[in-house]
Amino acid sequence: GAKVWSSYRVGYFSEGDDKYFYVPHKRKQNVNVALTNFETNDRQWRAAARGKPDWSKSRYRKIAKLINEILAAKQTPDYIIFPECSIPRHWAIAIAGKLAQQGVSLLAGVEYYEQRAKGKRLRNDSIISLATRWPGYQSNIVFMQPKLQPSHGEKFQLRKMNKKQFIPPGGIDEIPIYVHGHYFFGVVNCSDLTTPQNRVKYQGKVDGLFVLEWNPDVKTFSF
Protein backbone atom coordinates (compact mmCIF):
# COMPACT_ATOMS: atom_id res chain seq x y z
CA GLY A 1 0.00 0.00 0.00
CA ALA A 2 2.97 2.35 -0.35
CA LYS A 3 5.22 3.59 -3.11
CA VAL A 4 8.19 5.88 -3.59
CA TRP A 5 8.86 8.56 -6.18
CA SER A 6 10.33 6.76 -9.19
CA SER A 7 11.30 9.87 -11.13
CA TYR A 8 14.32 10.61 -8.91
CA ARG A 9 17.87 9.40 -9.40
CA VAL A 10 18.72 7.31 -6.32
CA GLY A 11 21.79 5.22 -5.49
CA TYR A 12 24.93 4.38 -7.48
CA PHE A 13 25.65 5.71 -10.94
CA SER A 14 28.92 5.53 -12.87
CA GLU A 15 30.06 8.45 -14.99
CA GLY A 16 33.40 7.87 -16.67
CA ASP A 17 35.87 6.56 -14.09
CA ASP A 18 33.90 7.90 -11.13
CA LYS A 19 31.11 6.49 -8.98
CA TYR A 20 28.37 8.82 -7.78
CA PHE A 21 25.88 8.14 -5.00
CA TYR A 22 22.69 10.14 -5.55
CA VAL A 23 20.27 11.02 -2.75
CA PRO A 24 17.31 13.27 -3.60
CA HIS A 25 17.12 16.48 -1.58
CA LYS A 26 15.70 19.96 -1.94
CA ARG A 27 17.88 22.53 -3.66
CA LYS A 28 19.47 25.08 -1.30
CA GLN A 29 21.41 28.20 -2.21
CA ASN A 30 23.62 27.94 0.88
CA VAL A 31 24.77 24.88 2.83
CA ASN A 32 25.07 25.30 6.60
CA VAL A 33 27.54 23.07 8.45
CA ALA A 34 28.00 22.46 12.20
CA LEU A 35 31.61 21.37 12.72
CA THR A 36 32.05 19.80 16.17
CA ASN A 37 35.14 19.65 18.34
CA PHE A 38 34.51 16.44 20.28
CA GLU A 39 37.10 14.50 22.26
CA THR A 40 37.84 10.80 21.90
CA ASN A 41 40.69 9.97 24.27
CA ASP A 42 43.36 7.28 23.86
CA ARG A 43 41.72 5.04 26.46
CA GLN A 44 38.42 5.05 24.54
CA TRP A 45 40.25 4.41 21.25
CA ARG A 46 42.09 1.36 22.65
CA ALA A 47 38.94 0.02 24.32
CA ALA A 48 37.03 0.15 21.02
CA ALA A 49 39.91 -1.63 19.22
CA ARG A 50 39.81 -4.39 21.84
CA GLY A 51 36.06 -4.84 21.43
CA LYS A 52 35.15 -3.25 24.76
CA PRO A 53 33.98 0.27 23.80
CA ASP A 54 33.00 2.99 26.24
CA TRP A 55 29.18 2.89 26.23
CA SER A 56 28.84 4.86 29.47
CA LYS A 57 25.93 7.15 30.26
CA SER A 58 28.27 10.10 30.73
CA ARG A 59 29.69 9.72 27.21
CA TYR A 60 26.24 9.37 25.67
CA ARG A 61 25.03 12.46 27.53
CA LYS A 62 27.98 14.50 26.23
CA ILE A 63 27.12 13.58 22.64
CA ALA A 64 23.40 14.18 23.16
CA LYS A 65 24.03 17.54 24.88
CA LEU A 66 26.24 18.76 22.05
CA ILE A 67 23.74 17.74 19.36
CA ASN A 68 20.81 19.28 21.26
CA GLU A 69 22.71 22.56 21.58
CA ILE A 70 23.38 22.56 17.84
CA LEU A 71 19.70 21.94 17.07
CA ALA A 72 18.66 24.71 19.47
CA ALA A 73 20.78 27.27 17.61
CA LYS A 74 19.10 30.06 15.68
CA GLN A 75 20.02 28.46 12.36
CA THR A 76 19.55 24.70 11.97
CA PRO A 77 22.47 23.15 10.09
CA ASP A 78 22.14 20.98 7.01
CA TYR A 79 25.08 18.81 8.11
CA ILE A 80 26.55 17.98 11.52
CA ILE A 81 30.18 16.79 11.38
CA PHE A 82 31.89 14.65 14.04
CA PRO A 83 35.57 13.56 13.99
CA GLU A 84 37.06 10.16 13.16
CA CYS A 85 36.41 7.36 15.71
CA SER A 86 34.15 9.59 17.81
CA ILE A 87 30.77 7.79 18.10
CA PRO A 88 29.94 4.10 18.70
CA ARG A 89 28.37 2.67 15.57
CA HIS A 90 24.95 1.73 17.01
CA TRP A 91 24.66 5.16 18.65
CA ALA A 92 25.59 6.86 15.38
CA ILE A 93 22.90 4.98 13.43
CA ALA A 94 20.23 5.89 16.00
CA ILE A 95 21.36 9.53 16.16
CA ALA A 96 21.39 9.76 12.36
CA GLY A 97 17.78 8.56 12.20
CA LYS A 98 16.64 11.11 14.77
CA LEU A 99 18.45 13.96 13.02
CA ALA A 100 17.01 12.95 9.66
CA GLN A 101 13.49 13.43 11.01
CA GLN A 102 14.41 17.10 11.31
CA GLY A 103 16.03 17.22 7.88
CA VAL A 104 19.60 17.20 9.24
CA SER A 105 22.36 15.01 7.78
CA LEU A 106 25.20 13.48 9.82
CA LEU A 107 28.81 12.82 8.77
CA ALA A 108 30.74 11.15 11.58
CA GLY A 109 33.61 8.80 12.23
CA VAL A 110 32.35 5.70 14.03
CA GLU A 111 34.46 3.70 16.46
CA TYR A 112 36.20 0.51 15.42
CA TYR A 113 33.99 -2.53 15.02
CA GLU A 114 34.85 -6.03 13.92
CA GLN A 115 34.04 -7.22 10.41
CA ARG A 116 33.48 -10.86 11.26
CA ALA A 117 32.85 -12.06 7.70
CA LYS A 118 36.35 -11.22 6.46
CA GLY A 119 39.04 -12.37 8.85
CA LYS A 120 37.75 -10.47 11.88
CA ARG A 121 39.48 -7.26 10.85
CA LEU A 122 38.56 -3.93 12.41
CA ARG A 123 36.62 -1.44 10.34
CA ASN A 124 37.30 2.26 10.73
CA ASP A 125 34.24 3.73 9.01
CA SER A 126 32.58 7.07 8.50
CA ILE A 127 28.81 7.11 8.60
CA ILE A 128 27.31 9.23 5.83
CA SER A 129 23.65 9.80 6.69
CA LEU A 130 21.87 11.98 4.13
CA ALA A 131 18.43 13.36 4.93
CA THR A 132 15.81 13.02 2.21
CA ARG A 133 12.07 13.04 1.57
CA TRP A 134 12.48 10.65 -1.36
CA PRO A 135 10.30 7.86 0.12
CA GLY A 136 7.47 10.38 0.53
CA TYR A 137 8.30 11.20 4.14
CA GLN A 138 11.27 12.56 6.09
CA SER A 139 13.93 9.84 6.22
CA ASN A 140 17.61 9.19 5.50
CA ILE A 141 19.88 7.02 3.37
CA VAL A 142 22.99 5.73 5.16
CA PHE A 143 26.35 4.83 3.61
CA MET A 144 29.24 3.36 5.63
CA GLN A 145 32.51 4.52 4.06
CA PRO A 146 35.66 2.60 5.12
CA LYS A 147 39.01 4.22 5.81
CA LEU A 148 41.39 3.28 3.00
CA GLN A 149 44.59 2.80 5.04
CA PRO A 150 45.53 3.19 8.71
CA SER A 151 48.00 5.95 9.51
CA HIS A 152 51.53 4.90 10.50
CA GLY A 153 50.85 5.48 14.20
CA GLU A 154 47.47 3.78 13.98
CA LYS A 155 48.96 0.69 12.31
CA PHE A 156 51.69 0.51 14.98
CA GLN A 157 49.20 0.73 17.86
CA LEU A 158 46.91 -1.88 16.30
CA ARG A 159 49.86 -4.23 15.75
CA LYS A 160 50.70 -3.97 19.46
CA MET A 161 47.17 -5.25 20.19
CA ASN A 162 47.47 -7.98 17.53
CA LYS A 163 44.80 -6.26 15.43
CA LYS A 164 44.54 -5.36 11.75
CA GLN A 165 42.33 -2.88 9.96
CA PHE A 166 40.06 -3.84 7.06
CA ILE A 167 41.39 -2.40 3.80
CA PRO A 168 38.88 -2.04 0.93
CA PRO A 169 40.42 -3.88 -2.03
CA GLY A 170 39.35 -1.28 -4.60
CA GLY A 171 40.88 1.64 -2.70
CA ILE A 172 39.72 5.16 -3.55
CA ASP A 173 37.91 3.85 -6.66
CA GLU A 174 35.33 2.22 -4.39
CA ILE A 175 34.47 5.51 -2.68
CA PRO A 176 31.68 7.49 -4.33
CA ILE A 177 31.17 11.19 -4.79
CA TYR A 178 27.97 12.02 -2.91
CA VAL A 179 25.30 14.01 -4.71
CA HIS A 180 22.83 15.28 -2.10
CA GLY A 181 20.21 17.08 -4.13
CA HIS A 182 22.38 19.50 -6.09
CA TYR A 183 25.30 19.51 -3.62
CA PHE A 184 28.32 17.42 -4.69
CA PHE A 185 30.80 16.48 -1.96
CA GLY A 186 33.37 13.92 -0.87
CA VAL A 187 34.39 12.50 2.51
CA VAL A 188 37.98 11.63 3.48
CA ASN A 189 38.94 9.90 6.72
CA CYS A 190 41.90 11.59 8.46
CA SER A 191 45.29 10.40 7.13
CA ASP A 192 43.74 9.26 3.83
CA LEU A 193 44.03 12.94 2.89
CA THR A 194 47.84 12.65 2.73
CA THR A 195 47.72 10.32 -0.31
CA PRO A 196 47.74 12.49 -3.47
CA GLN A 197 45.51 10.13 -5.48
CA ASN A 198 42.79 10.47 -2.85
CA ARG A 199 42.73 14.24 -3.35
CA VAL A 200 42.98 14.21 -7.14
CA LYS A 201 39.82 12.09 -7.28
CA TYR A 202 37.76 15.08 -6.12
CA GLN A 203 39.57 17.88 -7.94
CA GLY A 204 37.12 19.91 -9.99
CA LYS A 205 34.24 17.52 -9.26
CA VAL A 206 32.87 18.56 -5.86
CA ASP A 207 31.47 21.63 -4.12
CA GLY A 208 32.96 20.57 -0.79
CA LEU A 209 35.31 18.03 0.80
CA PHE A 210 34.77 16.91 4.40
CA VAL A 211 37.83 15.52 6.21
CA LEU A 212 36.98 13.75 9.48
CA GLU A 213 40.04 14.17 11.72
CA TRP A 214 40.95 12.62 15.06
CA ASN A 215 44.69 13.27 14.90
CA PRO A 216 45.59 16.62 16.57
CA ASP A 217 48.81 16.85 14.51
CA VAL A 218 47.52 19.65 12.29
CA LYS A 219 51.01 20.29 10.84
CA THR A 220 50.72 17.01 8.91
CA PHE A 221 47.70 18.44 7.08
CA SER A 222 48.72 22.09 6.88
CA PHE A 223 49.53 21.91 3.16
Characterise this structure.
With 223 residues, this protein is of the alpha/beta class. The protein is 22% helix and 27% strand. The protein has five helices and twelve strands. It has helices at 42-49, 57-71, 89-100, 152-160, 196-200; strands at residues 11-15, 18-23, 33-35, 79-81, 105-109, 113-115, 121-123, 125-132, 139-146, 177-180, 183-189, 208-212. It has a five-stranded mixed β-sheet, with no helix packed on it. A five-stranded mixed β-sheet has the order 3-4-5-8-9, with helices on one face. Strand 4, helix 3 and strand 5 form a beta-alpha-beta unit. The longest helix is centred in the N-terminal third of the chain and has 15 residues, at 57-71. The protein is globular, with a radius of gyration of 18 Å. The termini are far apart. The mean pLDDT is 91.
Structure summary:
The protein is α/β, with parallel strands linked by helices and 223 residues long. It contains five helices and twelve strands.
